[in-house]
Input
Amino acid sequence: MVTSSNNATPLMQQYLSVKSQYPETLLLYRMGDFYETFFDDAKKAAEILDITLTKRGTYNGEPIPMAGVPFHSVDNYLARLIEHGESVAICEQIGDPAAAKGIVERKVTRIITPGTVTDDNLLAERKDNCIVCVCSDQLTYAVSYINLSSGDFYCYEAETPAAFESILQRLRPAELLYSENFKSPELLSSYTGLRRRPVWDFDYETSLKKLCRQFGTRDLSGFGLNGISIGICAAGALLSYV
Output
């Protein structure tokens, strides 16, 4: 994905500046009555949404891929993107185009991910909207999950790949976070909505403090979490994300 604004028009400079803040997120960029996507985002959106891939201007001598959807029906397209495991940032025009002396001001006003969406219009029918976070050490796999619609929040530990896979298959996550040092990434390859997270998000002491603060307790013994340190790491990282 292009993130440098060298040799770009003012409009594309603005787009690239916004996109650089959300490199792993599909950016819907409001332009009049449409939300447009550009570069790799446009190719991805065109494939998932079955919309036309066009071109707008050039960048460094190459045509810029573009694909757009009407603003009045954006929820329909958002639901399909979420169903495919995509996270989406919506960039709105916040200035008055008629009053703008140059490029109208824009900023991201909403970020939607498969696991954190709670809008009924964007949720698949009869499907739990579950976001899962996993990590591991040399001996143990940890799984934590939260359903923002119901408020359920749990964590588990598993000692074998088979037990770990069984938990994931039962949860059917809409979004799956994993530590960048996770020991068995091949076990995650069949899932959509994968998000790699930095190792420091899974620090035990930090996770423990976050969980105790969230639940208003001095320790987690009342939740049956004594002795499952890796599970606490996964739960803390998940809490940080949501």
